[in-house]
Structure to design on (380 residues):
């Protein structure tokens, strides 16, 4: 096998950076945005593969980059469509709001406010 | 992220719809609506938070009162980066949906705010009482009008209107007390539109435009509300444009509906 031409090295470098960025982002809440670098990684990786293959260059590293970019893309899609986002139970905040409600309903504020509506219409 | 929006001068031309007294109340005690809040970032929608709205009867008062709850929280995957909690609780007169008291509790990345609005319609004022973790307390009175609502009671009030009696293009003014300011909003009925609702498929909805006088938290003329065109008039979708980007709120679950 011959060494890869410069253009292949450039394409693989871009694909690698994009693929890693996509993989990292796919594990964060920005999982849909991770699709952008992941797809770019795959596109550049395929371009690098096509040129390297035609020039009988080395393909091993290109395969690895394509795998990384694909894992990033699949992770994004699985997390987006296969897993449901949930709100965590925040007991402390719930207690705050419950207290606010109890104060209002046990006091005289509501009756005073109802008096303000008397004979309005 | 700031969530959800929402104050006036009376011009006639209501087109047959009374903006004063609701015709029917399309919701009941125990109704729970869940929504998903998404942000449009970098050409893609990103889910950010959950929103829950509830109706609860308040017993033991001289007139029937509902407590309308509006609770918004970032999804757990976001909490490590930007944890946001907002709770708005509004007590309304059940028959007229007029707000009596509104309480806000908010926690945005550790910064807390507690606010109370007391609506005194006979006196024409709302007493504002605000305290926050990083500001001085605020107490003041604001002038209100017979058709002044807060953001939660406004949404439920709009649900009581009979849109079948309105022709597309008809509008009416309301005022909303939000973030310690009175906002003038022109609500315009745009007609029916079919949209897709999670777990319900495609449904016909009444589409409303909420036009503010000026940009305030949201762009003044890019806020829309869809209510299902049935006897529940459930809020199905809301869109708004904030300074940071576009927000989409979509109904994901509805329980305890009246009809």
């Amino acid at each position: 096998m011959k060494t890869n031409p410069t253009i292949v090295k450039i394409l693989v470098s871009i694909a690698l950076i994009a693929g890693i960025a996509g993989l990292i982002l796919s594990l964060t809440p920005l999982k849909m945005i991770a699709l952008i670098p992941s797809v770019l990684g795959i596109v550049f990786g395929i371009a690098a593969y096509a040129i390297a293959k035609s020039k009988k260059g080395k393909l091993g590293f290109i395969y690895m980059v394509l795998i990384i970019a694909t894992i990033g893309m699949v992770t994004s899609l699985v997390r987006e469509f296969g897993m449901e986002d949930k709100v965590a139970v925040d007991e402390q905040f719930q207690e705050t709001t419950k207290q606010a409600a109890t104060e209002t309903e046990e006091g005289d504020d509501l009756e005073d406010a109802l008096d303000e509506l008397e004979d309005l219409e | 992220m700031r969530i959800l929006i929402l104050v006036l001068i009376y011009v006639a031309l209501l087109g047959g719809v009374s903006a004063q007294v609701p015709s029917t109340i399309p919701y009941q005690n125990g109704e729970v609506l869940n929504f998903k809040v998404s942000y449009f970032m970098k050409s893609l929608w990103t889910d950010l938070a959950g929103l829950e709205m509830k109706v609860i009867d308040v017993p033991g008062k001289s007139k029937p009162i509902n407590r309308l709850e509006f609770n918004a929280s970032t999804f757990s995957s976001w909490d490590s980066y930007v944890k946001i909690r907002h709770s708005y609780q509004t007590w309304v007169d059940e028959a007229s949906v007029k707000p009596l008291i509104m309480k806000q509790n908010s926690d945005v990345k550790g910064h807390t705010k507690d606010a109370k609005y007391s609506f005194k319609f006979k006196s024409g004022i709302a007493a504002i009482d605000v305290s926050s973790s990083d500001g001085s307390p605020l107490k003041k009175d604001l002038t209100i009008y017979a058709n002044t609502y807060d953001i939660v009671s406004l949404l439920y009030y709009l649900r009581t209107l009979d849109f079948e009696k309105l022709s597309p293009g008809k509008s009416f003014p309301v005022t909303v007390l939000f973030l310690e300011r009175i906002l003038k909003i022109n609500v315009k009925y745009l007609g029916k539109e079919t949209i897709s609702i999670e777990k319900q498929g495609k449904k016909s909805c009444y589409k409303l435009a909420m036009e503010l006088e000026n940009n305030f938290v949201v762009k003044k003329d890019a806020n829309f509300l869809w209510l299902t065109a049935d006897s529940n008039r459930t809020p199905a979708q809301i869109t708004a444009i904030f300074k940071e980007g576009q927000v989409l709120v979509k109904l994901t679950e509805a329980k305890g509906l009246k009809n």
Notes: The first helix of chain A runs from residue 6 to 26.
